[in-house]
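Deliverable D5.2: sample structural annotation.
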Amino acid sequence: MSEMKKPEAEILLDKQLELASKAKKSNIITAAIFLVLIFAVSVAFWIVPDNEYSGEEKRSLKQLPEISFERFVSDLKQDCKEIFMTYDEKQALKDQREDFADEIAEYYADQFPARNAMRAIKGYTEMLLCKGESNGIIITNGMLVNPDTITGTAKDEDGNVRDRNEEDAIKNITKNIGYINYLSKMLGTSGVEVYTALAGRTVDANRDILPSLYPSDVNDAFWNAYTEGASKAGINTVDILSPLRKHVNDGEYVYYKTDHHWTTLGAYYAYCEIINSLGEEPLPIDSFTKEIASEDFLGTVYAKSGIAPSGADTITFFRFENDEQFTTTIPVGEEVTEYKGFYNKKYLEDADKYSAFLGHDNFTFGGNNPLTLITKDGEENREKLVLIKDSFAHSLAPFLAYHYDLIILDMRYYIPDGNINKTVMQYASEENVSKVLILYNMETFMNDEYLMRIMG
């Protein structure tokens, strides 16, 4: 006699019990792994020393807020007093507690073990998902492009502080044109010519290869404000954006893939446009010996995104004959750096490799020196050029130095007082200066609040 067939409901129940037994084992293993990871991360937080600075992100990292017995007692007293506080006092206490909680959260986020690896995993995952960006950085053709370069804060009429917007940036461009116009008129009476040249941001120079969903004319308002304002004021301008955009479209390596600066090749093309406008003949590109200084440069945009889709950048020095017969002098307070040529190779062993161009020996200053002087040895009466700049000028300066002795001023850090620190007009009248060149990146020009110092 054959065995009775089990009902389907009983068979299904048996399968569920079998799967539940397997799932229980799997859940136990998963929970165990999760607990081990939590324990390992917790232990790592206390074993691994805190870092004060992230070379990859190029910023200081949050340190553990002060936690002391005195603070504990103070907080306990406040808790006891809270029942007698007014509404405003309670709100202030609440804000204080939230600030402390935010500090703790920032500390754990900044000191998280293997933080850089986690940032990379996040970024590359977003690439695989075809998101097209990472932490607000556009990824296109292997390049990292920062589309949002408006920085800083502004005050409304009612005194509220807010993030600056496009209108604020345009107003700042107009103000800076006014300062340049004033300087140009003052120096024009003594025959000193003033020129401006604005370098395009990566997002400007690469506009034709940006993703199709990114509007190509989104940043035109900044450039229109600059060109129209300078034209009305009669300021001498050198267009270096259009030629560089053409070289980008031709596939040339004129902007770093992981940094916001132009490459030395990009600086060379800008030099050709500028020096032609100044009435000089640029050196042909085959006059230079190209020396590869670094092949593992990861710049400022990488620091924000955490990924390098096309790998690290290459920094190249364009060396011309006898370029070590020039002396670069950088006085910062009582610390004076001096070296032959234009390159401080100490920085090539550091994360801040771009500061190898005109870098001060003190790594605190990097290449953003208040004052830099470049002279040619044995030639005391060379024509001088005052170069008022941001960091885009650092890789351009060696080209200009072939034609002029340079007085390089960074008005973000240089404070003219007419005595120890000469004004631009003092330099022009006392140092055989024939020309002044103001070279900024558009990002700096629309955000910078210190160019007014050129007026003395």
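Annotation notes: Residues 369 and 410 are 7 Å apart (CA to CA). The first helix runs from residue 8 to 47.
The annotation will be released with the project's public dataset once the embargo ends.
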